[in-house]
Specification:
This protein is α/β, with parallel strands linked by helices and 390 residues long. Among the domains are: 3-59; 168-346, von Willebrand factor, type A domain (Rossmann fold), CATH 3.40.50.410. It is 33% helix and 21% strand. It contains 8 helices and 14 strands. It has helices spanning 3-14, 28-72, 184-198, 225-234, 243-255, 283-292, 310-322, 335-346; strands at residues 108-110, 123-130, 145-149, 156-161, 168-175, 205-211, 215-222, 265-272, 296-301, 325-327, 350-355, 365-372, 378-380, 384-386. The strands form 3 sheets. A 6-stranded mixed beta sheet has the order 7-6-5-8-9-10, sandwiched between helices. Strands 1-4-11-2-13 form a 5-stranded mixed beta sheet, with no helix packed on it. Helix 3 (184-198) packs parallel to helix 8. The termini are far apart.
Amino acid sequence: MSAGCRRTRLATLTKVPGMSIPTAHWPAQRLLEYELMNTQRSTLQSTASARLRRLSSLAFAVAFACSAAFAQQPAPAAGAPAAQPPAQSAPQAAPGAAPLAAPGPGSNTDTGTPTIHVGVNEVSLIFTVTDKHGHYIANLGQNDFTLLDDQKAPERVNSFHQQINLPLRVGIVIDASTSIRSRFQFEQQSATEFLLDVLKAKSDRAFVMGFDVTPTVTADWTNDQDALETGINKLQPGGGTALYDAVYVACRDKLLGSRGPEPVRKAIILISDGDDNQSRVYLPEAIKECERAETIIYAISTNWTPSRGPGDKILQQLAEETGGEVFFPPSVEEMAASFKNIEEELRSQYALVYTPADFTTNGAYRTIYLYCYDRRYTVRAKKGYFATGR
């Protein structure tokens, strides 16, 4: 083939670089151009992919941060000031928790003496707020709290009251076993003075129960101070200790059936060293019966030794699981001060009635999480309840 023909054919081939022609027949300059073009194309594709991945990661991070911020910084109710960020030292509110919504139509929020009605599938929650020194905090508003029922915000809040004065249903449950014989008389005197101070209104009621191996009711429901004092003085120490049985029977037989259309504050004042050696039920069963009866336990330890014994831990668990408190007076003479603290708490409580979300009366246990946004304060309330309806 002549040189002119070869040049014409080569020129024709190089005009269509995308054709499938063996590169071995390409001129050296064209090969270099082709390799450079492929290299640039690969570089551009890699750069574009890297930029796309970075943009996707950045968009995901921004979206996640916005959603987390929205969950952790709930908006205040309309017309109310935004909740101030807590000061320092309490657990974070659960994700999705929000301030308690304003009560719905027909509900009420006040600080006077309320008339509170609890309807079907509504929950009445009595709780106390204290600072780190144990002082009771009053005058907090509804937007100062967040609430989760069974890990969900309530469907609606029906009423919220401060410094309530609801009727009392109090059980004085006294350990009458041999282990407390030496200080029993002073315990009787302190319990009598407590009832004289705490039962004020005609609607208040109390009963007296002593226990050793078996629980015994020595004064049934009444607001007659003389009858209650007589019931306390009837108790005589002796025998073993069936603490769990006494708590279980007090809730099952006396407090579980004391529910009416209007809520009451139900409490057991438990005076014991916390030891148990005769009960047929276990501690978790006693606690569950308290929760079914919606009863708070305030325990006063009669263990005067400087160190805390196993019985003190039992009293603490009973109190904490039911939303109450345990007191450790340093001596029998200081027991009256513990009764005074209980009386003050009973007059410094809040009442909240709400309708849970997705509520069904299946008897299942539903947890309660109530939290104050101000981390200087601690909320004491029951841990949950059984969905049995009313």
